[in-house]
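Appendix B. Raw example, untouched.
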Amino acid sequence: KEVNENLLATKRDVRFTKTEFQVLYLLLQKKGAVAPYEDFREEIWPDRAEAREVVHTLHQLVTNIRKKLAPCPVKIDNLRAEGFRLT
């Protein structure tokens, strides 16, 4: 109960860029399951052919999302060479 009260006490608006929101939305759709890098590329950047660029951009976006959600108990795991998982 204390944890819930503490979370309510820190309630605040969190603003995401359009792309950050798209990443978070895809993670939410697959909550608990791995969201492979390829899914992000297909959904968010269908015209980008360079996988390395997509992966680099995703890591930057997930870092930003983690910072913005820091007080929340939400966790985004990085599964090396696979993708991300929201837990």
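End of appendix B.
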